[in-house]
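USER:
Make up one protein:

ASSISTANT:
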Amino acid sequence: MGCAALLLVNSGSPVWLLLAVGAVLGVPQGLLGLAAQNALYRQAEPARIASAAGLLRTFMYLGALAASAATAAFFPHRADTPGLHGLALFMAVGSALLLVITLPDRSLRTLTPQAA
């Protein structure tokens, strides 16, 4: 939904639209760290929480690096509307792929740690 909302934004967009898109994208982003941390503590085995937390943080940093690379690729010289729309489509495709990978994972339906 947020990626689709970015497609509505252009250089003549009103401020209220920019604020609305910022809220649609920003609120879930702000809650993501808390949700990921809670899921980690809920699902990881107690003996492996430290290594699971390290992996979580590592992949969050890799995601931040990938986001920076995508931003640089879509805005090579300056921020403009076509770059924003290209980035929005790129994010929509990435989101769809993550959804396709995550939905069939039956292990995510359990709330207790899996036995090793």
The helical segments are 2-6, 15-43, 49-74, 81-102. The longest helix spans residues 15-43. Residues 70 and 90 are 8 Å apart (CA to CA). The radius of gyration is 18 Å.
